[in-house]
Structures are given as C-alpha cells and as structure tokens.
Amino acid sequence: MTPVLAVDFDETITTLDTVARLPKLAAEYLPRAEAAGRGRSWEQGVSSYVAQWRETFEAVLASPPDGPTAADRVDAFSRRFSDIENGSLTAIEDRSLLHGIPRAALTRCGTGIPKRDGADETLAEARRRGFDVHIISANWSADMLRGAVGDVGDIHSNDLEFDAEGLTTGRFLRRMVSARDKGVCLRGVADGRGRVVYVGDGMNDLAALLEADIGIVIGRKPDMQRVCEALGIPTYAMAEAGRVSAGESLLRVDCWDEIAQCLFERERVGVEPTADG
Q1: Cα(206)–Cα(215) distance, rounded to whole angstroms?
Q2: Whole-Å CA distances, 61 to 56, 111, 137, 206
Q3: Distances (CA, A) of 155 to 62, 158, 167, 185, 195
Q4: Could you read off the pLDDT of 200-233 as tens digits, one per residue?
Q5: Strand extents, DSSP E, the chain
Q6: Using an 8 Å Cβ cutoff, are 10 and 18 in contact?
Q7: For residue 241, what is the domain's CATH number?
Q8: Residue 140 host element (H or E)
C-alpha cells in the first residue's frame, strides 16, 4: 500500500511564518498613502489577535480539558480558539487587507520563502520512493505555497478568492482553520493508504499528529511543549522512538535530517508501526 507523508508548511517546511508576506504583497499594488493605512490596520489587527489568543491560551492551560483520549482532549482544546481564528479572518476581510493581488504575484512570492535545511530534499526523496506527499496548512494562499514547494505534492490549505480578472477579492476560502480541520483532512488523504506520517510544529497540528501512524513534531516551541504536557501527550526524542504509540504520543525532532532518517530507515528495514510504536 502507498505510504503517506503529510506535512505542515509554516515553520515546518519554512524557517518562519509566512502569512505576513501577504499584506505586504497587497500593499505593492496600492498608492503609497493607502498602503500605509492598510499597514497600520494590519498591525492593529495582529495586536488584537495576539492579545485575545494569549488570554485564551493561558486560561485554557490553567484548566485544561479532560477526555478519554488524547484526540478528545486536543479537540476540546482547539474548540476554545475557534471564534478567535474565524474572527481574525473576518476582520481581515472586512478591512479588505488582501484585496487586489494578482495570482501570479502570489506564486512568485512563494519562490523566495526561506526553508529549513533538508526540507526540499526530504520531500523530493519521499516522492521518489513512492510516498504520496501532501502539504496540509492553515496558510491563506495555495498559490504562494505552490510557488514555495513546486509540484512535490498536493496542497490542502485555505485560499484567497479571485475575481474574473484574476485579482484577489480580499475574501478567504476557509478550508483549514482549526486543528480539527487538519485532522479531518489527513484522515481523508490517508484513507486506503499505507503507513501515514505527519510532520508539524505547532498546536494546530496536534489533531493531525495524533491521527497519523507516526506524528513528528519538529522544533521545540515552548507553547507547544506546554500544551502537550497539559493534555497528557508525551513526546520522545529519536533515541526513544520505540516508545512512540500512534494516537497517544509523538516523536520529537530538531531537523529534517532526523525526519529523513525516520522515514527512510523504517522503509529500508520494513518497520511498520504497532500499537506499541
């Protein structure tokens, strides 16, 4: 059966979050005065979002949700952020902050995005070895993602709406807003396939990480570590990979070389995940 490699985009493939490139790109197609006004509006929106998010985050961690499984606890956790995430997208739409961008400009923007060492090479090698590769991202532009990763795999993300002239309308096509959305997406692409590996770096990856046969967390974000501890989700380094159990615990790596080792060494020796990892 065909194995699946699904990965997050921002700060998993890339070295930094990339959505802030979009309002800057939109500003290039505006008169200077209007661009400055949109820039201030964007900064105000970001400040408001961060404040709401942090307040909710600390409140949830002070009394973390309970549930019989890790997936149940993650689902309850992510639901607490639903209004904030959707509200931030609505605010961007109402202010027309991403209006007027040509589709081709989004693709070009993606080509300049810096990526983690080894990401491109590992994705390409996975495809060469027969993995079905998917990018599952809460990013706002599928065209920007395509510009960044090329044709290495299928892209599942939010997107920007375009008018008849090929310019963004300023509205979103909301497909991947929450952790739950990513988990549901992974379940769909994995149906009828072989071993499923998911790689992500943040809290909105948790549902997909637990849905996979092998969930790999790249990096050591303090907030991610706090959430995993609060929700009872152990993470293990490569040296303890044998302790990882699908749906209950996760593998933790620092770089794409370790991901390649996990993917291709397991493939070489024919290792398949078991209930004990």
Answers
A1: 9
A2: 9, 38, 24, 15
A3: 36, 10, 21, 11, 19
A4: 999 999 999 999 999 999 999 999 999 999 999 9
A5: 4-7, 99-102, 132-137, 154-157, 159-162, 167-173, 196-200, 214-218, 235-236, 250-253
A6: yes
A7: 3.40.50.1000
A8: none
Measure the CA–CA gap between 251 and 262, rounded to whole angstroms.
Answer: 10
Asked if the structure places residue 275 within a domain, the reply is: no
Confidence class of residue 276 from pLDDT cuts 50, 70 and 90? Answer: very low
Q: Count of residues for the chain?
A: 277
The number of domains in the chain is 1
**Confidence (pLDDT) at 267:** 52
Nearest to residue 142, comparing CAs of 173, 163, 177? 173
| Residue 225 domain boundaries | 4-269
Output the pLDDT for position 274.
Answer: 41
| Angle ∠(85,34,29) on CA atoms, nearest 5 | 85
240 within some domain = yes
| Secondary structure of residue 158 in the 3-state scheme | coil
The residues, any chain, with a CB within 8 Å of residue 179's CB and separated by 6 or more, are 74, 75, 77, 78, 203, 204, 205, 206, 207, 208
Residue 47 lies in a domain: yes
**DSSP codes joined into one string, 178-236:** SHHHHHHHHHHHHTT-S-EEEEE-SGGGHHHHHHSSEEEEES--HHHHHHHHHTT--EE
This prediction's pTM: 0.93
Question: Which of 219, 259, 221 is closest to 238 using CA atoms?
Answer: 259
pLDDT for the residue 32: 84
Kindly state the tokens that stand for 13: 């493939």
Would 14 be classed as within a structural domain? yes
